[in-house]
Structure formats: C-alpha cells, structure tokens
UniProtKB/TrEMBL annotation:
Protein name: Retrovirus-related Pol poly from transposon
Domain of life from the UniProt record: Eukaryota
Domain Reverse transcriptase: 4-191
Disordered, as annotated region: 209-232
SUPFAM superfamilies in UniProt: DNA/RNA polymerases
PANTHER family assigned: INTEGRASE CATALYTIC DOMAIN-CONTAINING PROTEIN, PROTEIN CBG26694
Pfam family, one: RVT_1
Length: 232
C-alpha cells in the first residue's frame, strides 16, 4: 500500500494511533479467498473517529430514481475501482489516520474505510465530480446511467460519463459493469422501464438473516427498508 501511494511513514506528534486489521475479501458467491493479494487492510479507527465531526448527506431513494428515469428503456451501471483510494486527504486529516505496523507508524494519504465519515465524504466528492451530467446518478461508488435507445440518449449519457471520469482521473472496474441493458441490478434492486423490484439474491439474503438476539434498530435487517422503499 506504500508502493500504491495509499500509506506513508508518519512523523511528528501522533494524537491517534490505530491498530491495522486484515480481512479476506469476499470472492465469488460470497466465499472468502486466501491469496495474499485478496486481503483487505482496514484501520480500527474506533478511538480516532471521536475526533471527526461526521457530515451527513441525504441520498436519492429508489422511488426518486425511478421517477427521474421515467421513459428510459436502456440502462448501465458501472463501479469505481478502489473508490476511496482515489480521494486524497489533506495534511491535517492524515494525522488522524495513523496506524501501527511492523514498519513503524504509517498514515493514510487517501480516504480509508475506517473513517466514520468516509461514505459521506466519498458521496459528496463523487456527486461534485459528476455534477451537470444528464441521466447519471451515483450511490457511493456505483454509478447508474439511463436513457433511451431510439434517440441515442443513453449512449450519449454513458459517453459523457466516461469522458468525465477520465477527466477526473477516476477508474472503473470492468468485472461489475452492466452496459446497455434493458434491466440492471442497482443496490439490491432491479431497474427496468416497468419500474423496480427486489433482486433474487437480495431477497434470498434477507430471508436468510438470523433473528436479532436483542432489539436494536441499527442491527436489524429491517433497517435496510428505513427509506420507505416500495417494491414488488
């Protein structure tokens, strides 16, 4: 990660030093993989997060996206590669992200998953980068494109998106791309000109959730529906 310009040696006063944890990345069908290249390093920033004032953002609901995409019949979904790592931290913020390692103290140069406000910071940055594009919306690092096939609006919207991403230096994952499809899966839902419905794998995961051992709204699978989404 030092070679990838994500981490750098930390010097000077260090008000926060977090442990660095390693987790296997999920592989195909949710199975974990054992290769070293598929290990995800994440800082346990429980204590350092107390120094961060979290920014909250309101994201678009599936219903709002359906209304916006009304009349479209062609869709694409693309996913950013290492999205957080494409956002550089300023000097002051880096000192909050110091982690201990066998190489000594290191600090993040780029946004990391351990930061409590990372999702909101990323959403805001990507919204700003994509501002003004027609038929384009993002939720975190997934980008939804819609338009019509007969008038070429979908292809034009997709072309403008790719040009904007290249201009901003943002890279995409080809593995998860859904390009020029009559229906696409986007955040557990299937979008098409007929509206939205729950995808099979999302429904299966929901059905397989174990019941809560104690009441906790954030820990309940029902919290996924807190936006009031209505699907068939």
């Amino acid at each position: 990660m030092i070679k990838d310009d994500v981490l750098e040696p930390a010097t000077g006063p260090m008000p926060w030093v977090s442990p660095l944890l390693a987790f296997p990345k999920p592989g195909p069908n949710g199975k974990t993989v054992s290769e070293a290249s598929q290990i995800r390093l994440v800082a346990d920033s429980t204590l350092s997060n107390t120094a961060i004032i979290r920014e909250h953002r309101v994201t678009m609901t599936p219903e709002e996206l359906t209304v916006e995409a009304n009349g479209s019949d062609l869709y694409s979904v693309v996913d950013l590669t290492e999205g957080y790592s494409q956002i550089e931290l300023d000097e002051e913020s880096r000192q909050i992200t110091v982690v201990s390692s066998h190489l000594g103290p290191l600090r993040y140069k780029r946004l990391t998953m351990g930061i409590c406000s990372a999702a909101e910071i990323f959403q805001k940055a990507l919204e700003k980068a994509l501002a003004g594009l027609k038929g384009v919306r993002n939720l975190w690092d997934d980008i939804f494109v819609h338009g019509r096939e007969d008038d070429g609006s979908h292809d034009e919207n997709l072309k403008n998106l790719l040009e904007r991403l290249e201009e901003k230096g943002l890279t995409l994952s080809t593995k998860k791309a859904q390009i020029r499809q009559p229906e696409v899966k986007f955040f557990g839902l299937i979008f098409s000109k007929r509206g939205i419905k729950v995808s099979h794998d999302f429904q299966q995961s929901f059905n397989n959730c174990a019941p809560d051992s104690k009441p906790h709204p954030q820990g309940s699978p029902l919290s996924v529906g807190r936006g009031g989404t209505k699907v068939s």
